[in-house]
Amino acid sequence: MHNILRALFIAILSLVLSNNAVFAETDAKSFLISGEAKFKAKDYNGAISDYTKALELKPRFAEAYLNRGFAKRSIGDIEGAKGDFKKSIDVDPTPKDAAAYYQRALAKFALGDKDSALSDFKRAADHGDSNAKAWLKDNGYK
């Protein structure tokens, strides 16, 4: 009887924990969507807050880091934006649209780190980012 109760307890605990993970995932996406709406409304601090909440629930949420980087850049926090773009790349090093590489390159360039920015522009271009390809071409790189 003791083993049956233990197995039942473990099964219930597993179910509760898996549901919590699903709810955290759903809530993280909800905060991402809310942050996007606030960003579009130019409530950049509100967007940053929502993206941060999404990341508290789902720490490996590359899109939330990327979007929070956009919002930070919009309020002039270039260093913070660069950090978020880096974290987005750390979480997902091969984003399909290479936006994090391109955005981090722009942040690095604005901060005067031109060599490192060039490396990111090239990575973004290698991943197919048309903006990075255009930047490289416009600045005399292949």
Model description:
By secondary structure, the protein is mainly α. The chain has seven helices and no strands. The chain is globular, with a radius of gyration of 20 Å. Residues 15-24 have low confidence and may be disordered.
Summarize this entry quickly.
The chain is built from seven helices and no strands.
What topology does this entry show?
Blueprint: H1 2-40, H2 44-57, H3 62-74, H4 78-91, H5 99-110, H6 114-126, H7 130-138
Helix pairs in contact: 1-2, 1-3, 2-3, 3-4, 3-5, 4-5, 5-6, 6-7
Number of helices: 7
The number of E-state strands comes to 0
Quick one: overall form?
globular
Fraction of residues in H or I helices: over 70%
Report low-confidence residues grouped into runs of 5 or more.
15-24
* Protein structure class: mainly alpha
Order of helices and strands: HHHHHHH
Q: How widely separated are the two ends? A: 72 Å
> How is the main sheet built?
none
Query: How would you state the average pLDDT, rounded?
Result: 86
DSSP strand content: under 5%
Output the keywords.
142 residues; 7 helices; mainly alpha
